[in-house]
């Protein structure tokens, strides 16, 4: 109920209305600003009551509502907004697979619950034919990438030492590549993605967009980036992708390149960080349901790296529940 209430608030634009009001807002002022029938205005009090209780908003002594740090992350124009992520996770296209888990478990075919719920069609095929899903997914990835780029450049800039060219696999609109180039203008960046994701995008002197398939070939560079890519795929497909990445970077006897992965490493947290572990478990279940993928432990990652022909790696926890993984040929 908390999640659905939050979705309703985002769809109604409540965080943005309060933010744009510039000060705590009365219930009557909020209702007047909402795209709704005034005959149902009394329901907004009940919606706000549960959202205040859940600490998404606060209510002052004068019965006025204001934003909390959590609801500021729901502003649609916020640089690091998570509003698209909430809307995507709670979209019927991603809630439907959970209603088909029993049917999926009884099926011997290597398909995901998403495919079971959609007549054999996978998520990428649905996103490719439904602009609404594709646009929402792209918004999620762009917002997440802006956050990752800031941490990468501020706290992990050493990963770019000795590198002259970078290939961002699945880089979509180039959010990460552009952020890297802003910080390191002498680099050359290539963004590889499926051709239909690159329509209308234009490169520059040191940024090139290449339409292609990572299972077929990856452009060459000193380093290859895989941000939140491999958890989408099963182990067999991951090894195929990793081998293509290895083919794209210089061998050890030619100076050596590296693969840079930003993804989760399960059970890496010391002590009793239950919240971090819970978040990782949630994502693991999501990958199971939507894509037939998974989150992996260090042991599982290492097996993939060695199976693909890599010889060494380094893991640095750096992005909340995700880690920076540098892999070497």
From TrEMBL:
<dbReference type="GO" id="GO:0046983">
    <property type="term" value="F:protein dimerization activity"/>
</dbReference>
<protein>
    <recommendedName>
        <fullName>O-methyltransferase domain-containing protein</fullName>
    </recommendedName>
</protein>
<dbReference type="Pfam" id="PF00891">
    <property type="entry name" value="Methyltransf_2"/>
</dbReference>
<dbReference type="InterPro" id="IPR012967">
    <property type="entry name" value="COMT_dimerisation"/>
</dbReference>
<keyword id="KW-0808">Transferase</keyword>
<dbReference type="Pfam" id="PF08100">
    <property type="entry name" value="Dimerisation"/>
</dbReference>
<dbReference type="GO" id="GO:0008757">
    <property type="term" value="F:S-adenosylmethionine-dependent methyltransferase activity"/>
</dbReference>
<dbReference type="InterPro" id="IPR036388">
    <property type="entry name" value="WH-like_DNA-bd_sf"/>
</dbReference>
<dbReference type="GO" id="GO:0032259">
    <property type="term" value="P:methylation"/>
</dbReference>
<feature type="active site" description="Proton acceptor">
    <location>
        <position position="231"/>
    </location>
</feature>
<feature type="domain" description="O-methyltransferase C-terminal">
    <location>
        <begin position="98"/>
        <end position="310"/>
    </location>
</feature>
<dbReference type="InterPro" id="IPR001077">
    <property type="entry name" value="COMT_C"/>
</dbReference>
<dbReference type="InterPro" id="IPR016461">
    <property type="entry name" value="COMT-like"/>
</dbReference>
<keyword id="KW-0949">S-adenosyl-L-methionine</keyword>
<dbReference type="GO" id="GO:0008171">
    <property type="term" value="F:O-methyltransferase activity"/>
</dbReference>
<dbReference type="InterPro" id="IPR036390">
    <property type="entry name" value="WH_DNA-bd_sf"/>
</dbReference>
<keyword id="KW-0489">Methyltransferase</keyword>
<feature type="domain" description="O-methyltransferase dimerisation">
    <location>
        <begin position="2"/>
        <end position="76"/>
    </location>
</feature>
<dbReference type="InterPro" id="IPR029063">
    <property type="entry name" value="SAM-dependent_MTases_sf"/>
</dbReference>
<comment type="similarity">
    <text>Belongs to the class I-like SAM-binding methyltransferase superfamily. Cation-independent O-methyltransferase family. COMT subfamily.</text>
</comment>
């Amino acid at each position: 109920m908390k999640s659905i209430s939050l979705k309703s608030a985002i769809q109604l634009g409540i965080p943005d209305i309060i933010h744009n009001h510039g000060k705590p807002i009365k219930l009557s002022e909020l209702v007047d600003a909402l795209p709704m029938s005034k005959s149902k205005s009394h329901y907004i009090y009940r919606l706000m009551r549960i959202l205040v209780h859940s600490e998404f908003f606060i209510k002052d002594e004068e019965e006025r509502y204001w934003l909390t740090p959590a609801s500021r992350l729901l502003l649609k124009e916020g640089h690091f907004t998570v509003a698209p992520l909430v809307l995507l996770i709670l979209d019927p296209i991603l809630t439907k697979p959970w209603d088909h888990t029993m049917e999926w478990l009884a099926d011997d075919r290597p398909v995901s619950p998403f495919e079971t719920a959609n007549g054999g069609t996978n998520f990428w095929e649905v996103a490719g034919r439904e602009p609404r899903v594709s646009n929402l997914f792209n918004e999620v990835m762009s917002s997440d990438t802006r956050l990752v780029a800031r941490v990468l450049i501020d706290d992990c800039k050493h990963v770019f030492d000795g590198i002259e060219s970078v290939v961002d696999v699945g880089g979509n609109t180039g959010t990460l590549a552009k952020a890297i180039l802003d910080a390191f203008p002498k680099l050359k960046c290539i963004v590889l993605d499926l051709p239909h994701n690159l329509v209308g995008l234009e490169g520059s002197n040191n940024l090139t967009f290449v339409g292609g398939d990572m299972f077929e070939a990856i452009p060459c560079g000193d380093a290859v980036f895989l941000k939140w890519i491999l958890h989408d795929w099963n182990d067999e497909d991951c090894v195929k992708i990793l081998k293509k990445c290895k083919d794209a970077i210089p061998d050890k006897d030619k100076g050596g390149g590296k693969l840079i992965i930003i993804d989760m490493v399960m059970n890496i947290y010391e002590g009793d960080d239950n919240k971090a572990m819970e978040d990782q478990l949630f994502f693991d279940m999501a990958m199971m349901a939507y894509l037939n993928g998974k989150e992996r432990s260090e042991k599982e990652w290492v097996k993939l790296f060695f199976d693909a022909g890599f010889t060494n790696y380094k893991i640095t926890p750096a992005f909340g529940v995700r880690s920076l993984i540098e892999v070497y040929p």
